[in-house]
Automatic annotation (TrEMBL):
One of its GO terms (molecular function) is dopamine beta-monooxygenase activity. This is MOXD1 homolog 2. Coiled coil: none annotated. The lineage of its organism: Eukaryota, Metazoa, Ecdysozoa, Arthropoda, Hexapoda. Residues 1-22 form the signal peptide. Its cofactor is Cu(2+). Residues 33-148 form the DOMON domain. Keywords: Copper, Disulfide bond, Glycoprotein, Metal-binding, Monooxygenase, Oxidoreductase, Signal. It comes from the Eukaryota. GO terms for biological process: dopamine catabolic process; norepinephrine biosynthetic process; octopamine biosynthetic process.
Amino acid sequence: MNAFVGYRLILALLPLVNVVTSLEWKNSAVLDNNFLVLWTPGDRDIVFEVQVKTQGYVGLGFTRDDRHVGADMVIGWVDNNGQVHLQDRHVKDSNKDPQMDSSQDYYLLLGYENKTHTVLRFTRSYDTCDPRDLKITNDTMQVVWQYHVEEPVSAAGVLPPHGAVRGSRPLYLVQRDSPPKRTSRNQEVPAVKTWDVLNQQVKLPMEQDTLLWCRVVEMPQLDRKHHVIKYEPVIQPGNQQYLHHMTLYECRGKEYDLEEAAASNGTVCYQPDHPSLLCTSIAATWNLGSEGFNYPPEAGYALDPDSGPRYYMLETHYTNPLLDNFITDSSGLRLVYTNQLRTHDAGILSVGIDPNWRHIIPPGQREVVSEGHCVTDCTGQTIPESGVNMFAVIMHTHQLGRKVRLRQIRAGEELPPIASDTNYDPNYQEYRRLQRPAKVYPGDHLVAECTYSSESRQTITLGGLTTREESCLVSALYYPRIELSLCYSLPSLPTVLQSLGIQKLKQGATPVIIEAPADLAGMTLEERLMRYNWETSFQSFQEATHRGTFKPLCWNRKGELLPNTDVQEAHYPRILRPYKETMMPCAKKTPRNKLSRLFGEDGDLPAPVDPDSDEANAVERGQLVRSKVSRSSEGPVAGSSGVTRAPVVLVLAIIVAAFR
Ligand SMILES: *[C@@H]1O[C@H](CO)[C@@H](O)[C@H](O)[C@H]1NC(C)=O
Ligand SMILES: *[C@@H]1O[C@H](CO)[C@@H](O)[C@H](O)[C@H]1NC(C)=O
Ligand SMILES: *[C@@H]1O[C@H](CO)[C@@H](O)[C@H](O)[C@H]1NC(C)=O
């Protein structure tokens, strides 16, 4: 019996079960040119589909770092009899096949193969309770993939020895922006215009593998305020491989400097001999793996000729590891804007440490924690009584960053963090869309907390803008827009001195000379920084920086310090009720009676298949019907329903196999 008849059988059975309604995927990512992954996060489970241009086996997996070892993998294929195989495995040794898990926690929903592709749809829980599997969380996940032109020769799944194509990439799987749902077909689409902020034939250097290129541009001539409702990358065909990230910053500062910068095609960023422009607030950012960003329907980013910034800087990070010659690039970002204004202006609030040498990261440490504060006075003066709603957050450190959190303290109580990533990857910066907006009220104290690993460094790292220096910033998109723009802090000089064991500096000396304690007297501050024994004194350094005072720096959108916040020293907020993370006990799902699940519970009757529908035609053309997991038009998809349906398709597969 050929597979074709099998398809007909499935089709015949479909009306019995609730699997044929259209499925709209929430997220997708092209992992390599042959590998597309689509997924929809539900309440407790995520449904995935991989569409891979091969007729061999395919594999998708998850790790915390970009090595394959330790990866939690699912391997699947469609064999010559049309039977679909899906195996939950893990990578123990990079030279060996991923090993089979004793607990199989990925559930096949559907699988087929056409002339070119293998398609597998499956679901798993965020936390499968199997130590061999990786929990899927809000943290940055490294997604690994693998595929081969051949499939395993037996159902046991010994993989072909050589020739697998592999790759990995960091991705947010859960807190991810996605295009707005089309609610109805004839919904009015606002007339939009586009502003392309593009590079002008940037020549990649032939002797360097990275280039950070900065170009200042003036916003388009507009007669009144418009709203940017989304942005997306514009990538010069063929150049995707050279692009690492592109970020558009709002610029403040002297009109003349900005005008002059905008007249050129750009320069290498952050050169010491160039005047540094004050372009720090992120307006838009793209990173490998991202498709852009969509503002929520209630808010847009204002392009306002009267009050907004008029100049922007596009920073493009190019990589050219193979030193390919004669590469030029004109990629950039496209901002889509409209004059049909949305209810709210979205704003960007950055919380963090002012980029300054007083932000000190000792060398050779596994974990160094730095904190930037947005104090009560600053939120109190600027946030309306009704609060603001943060809907997306982007974290920013340079190469040493490993964990980042945006903490929120209200009247002595620490609330759950607005955003948190314990697996932060400094090379992957993208807005994470919060599933529910976080409310921030006047008087809230926010802390951007960055944890660095400086084990790779032999010398001290200081705060600053260049990539060798460090940074700790969390920028949040929110609405309605307020005056506060950058809400930073800077460790006070007494804090810095105390953390270095210095009691007193000599008045008015240049370079700065230490007076007390006696054993350091006469030493310059710089020498102290260089010679400090971090090995023995790291703990006391860390405590002094954590407990010490800091200078709040709250800037409004015009780049002025807010009045009455210009105090020299502020203190760490008192936290009377600390936040305790509740660890949910792991509850393993016991597969209940599959048939009762199949026909019981959510027994909404499926629509019969229309013989002229795409599905039916697909079968006629010899492709397999793509049975669809149902979803309601609103609310989370799949979730428990995805799981109830997992056994459904298994049962189908069994029935089909029995008929062969
Ligand atoms: C096979 O399926 C894939 C994934 O759905 C699709 O992109 C491709 O066009 C199909 N190929 C053929 C020959 O039908
Ligand atoms: C992600 O964060 C949100 C808000 O903090 C939380 O409700 C949700 O459970 C988290 N999701 C996962 C998969 O951890
Ligand atoms: C910018 O680049 C374009 C395209 O390469 C070139 O025609 C133009 O002369 C350049 N302008 C400046 C100011 O260098």
